[in-house]
Design goal:
Blueprint: E1 47-49, E2 54-56, H1 67-78, H2 91-103, H3 114-120, H4 131-142, H5 155-167, H6 178-185
Antiparallel strand pairs: 1-2
Helix pairs in contact: 1-4
Domain Peptidoglycan binding-like: 65-120, 129-184
Protein name: Peptidoglycan-binding protein
InterPro entries: Peptidoglycan-bd-like, PGBD-like_sf, PGBDSf
């Protein structure tokens, strides 16, 4: 077999998982082992590492249309960037996205990608009210969960969120956090 320091197949034998020549591990001359952390891999395009695990976020930009654009517009309004909810990503929406991005130290390219989604989404739960709740309600309807789009996170919205979460194999806690937002925005 040979010297364990030179044989990679034995590098972790006996609990010593240090790399040859490293300054850590029980055999290092500098003292007790120190913790090393491998850097996280870079996210794939259109994937954001928020919280635990990767989430896929839609890319929304000028010319886009539909319920995902309406969600962007409602979330912008919830953050104080009043935007008409016409489900069309035109010049007005682009201007508000750029303002939001600048104010949140993001690249102000007017494109809603993973970093902008991360800043835009708002955790929602029973009792919440406002345009961000309306965004959740619209997206629930896209996925077959008809609820009133009244901007109030009441019992029927909480039940619809819980049912949606169960369908998507998410924690069915009726709280709309990053995982639920990403799932609601997929195929919307």
């Amino acid at each position: 077999m040979g010297d364990p320091a030179l044989d990679p197949s034995n590098a972790c034998e006996g609990g010593d998982c240090s790399q040859p020549g490293s300054e850590t591990g029980p055999n290092a001359e500098t003292g007790p082992p120190s913790a090393t952390v491998d850097p996280a891999p870079a996210p794939a395009p259109e994937t954001s590492l928020i919280g635990t695990g990767p989430r896929t976020w839609p890319l929304v930009k000028s010319g886009s249309q539909g319920d995902t654009v309406a969600a962007v517009q409602l979330l912008l309004t919830a953050h104080g960037y009043r935007t008409d909810t016409d489900a069309a990503f035109g010049p007005g929406t682009t201007a508000q996205v750029r303002s939001f991005q600048r104010d949140n130290s993001l690249n102000d390219d007017g494109i809603v990608g993973p970093d902008t989604w991360h800043a835009l989404i708002i955790n929602m739960r029973s009792g919440d009210r406002g345009p961000s709740v309306t965004a959740v309600q619209r997206l629930l309807a896209v996925h077959g969960h008809a609820v009133d789009k009244d901007g109030t996170f009441g019992t029927s919205t909480a039940q619809a969120v819980g049912a949606f979460q169960e369908e998507r194999h998410l924690a069915a806690d009726s709280v709309v956090g990053p995982d639920t937002w990403a799932a609601l925005l997929s195929q919307a």
